[in-house]
Amino acid sequence: MCQQTRSPKSVAIVGGGPAGAFAAAELARAGRDVWLFEEKLAWEKPCGGGITPKAVERWPFLRDARVERRWVDRCELIAPSGRKVRFHLDREIAIFSRTVLNGLMLEKVREAGAEVRAERVLTIVRDGESWSLQTSSAIYRADFLVLASGARNPFRSQFSQALGPENCTVAVSYYIPGCGETMKMKF
């Protein structure tokens, strides 16, 4: 099996969705050598590609791109009991096809100088001062690791430190005023 190593201060990012792509582009622009691992470079998902105003502010090309998207300024949630809550958002959320969204973001990742690898990471091991990532075709070594492969990633139990809400979600999250309290809803 082939071994590949980046220069000092290299970063391996596992997951090419919004969080992984944003991290890859920012780190590459800051002069780091970056590998972004995503086995499915552009795919559709039932939940689509919802992007918060915070993400659009940081990546204005998402607002300006000449692609189909929908701007959402109101929401309706329906419980299994049939009860509904409707509300207006104070800032619009952009909803893209996930294929379109990932294509736009991965283009920016490449433009920033990161290397996008269409490979599934099978194992991750801390190897002394670096990280060792094994795919079906190679073993990669990097100084830093960013795990951005979503809530159902296979490495969750291996890296299970709980994170607070301030460390999560540039995708979709919103606060809904409820009966005397505020509930955080993710959709």
Would you kindly provide a written description of the structure presented here, covering whatever features stand out?
- There is one protein chain.
- Helices cover 20% and strands 36% of the residues.
- It has 187 residues and is an alpha/beta fold.
- It has one domain (2-185): FAD/NAD(P)-binding domain, CATH 3.50.50.
- A hairpin with a 2-residue loop joins strand 8 and strand 9.
- Helix 1 runs parallel beside helix 4 (98-112).
- The chain is globular.
- The protein starts with a strand and ends with a strand.
Q: For this structure, what is the CATH class? A: Alpha Beta
Could you state the order of secondary-structure elements as H and E? EEHEEHHEEHEEEEEEE
| CATH homologous superfamily grouping | FAD/NAD(P)-binding domain
Structural class: alpha/beta
Query: Strand order, biggest sheet?
Result: 1-10-9-8
Our count of helices gives 4
Main sheet, how many strands, which sense, barrel? 4 strands, mixed
| Rg computed from alpha carbons, rounded to a whole number of angstroms | 18 Å
Could you name the CATH topology?
A: FAD/NAD(P)-binding domain
Percent range of helical residues: 10-25%
Runs in which pLDDT lies below 50 for 5 or more consecutive residues are: 169-187
Gross geometry? globular
Number of strand elements: 13
CATH architecture: 3-Layer(bba) Sandwich
Strand content: 35-45%
The averaged pLDDT comes out at 79
User: How many structural domains in the coordinates?
Assistant: 1
Terminal CA distance reads 41 Å
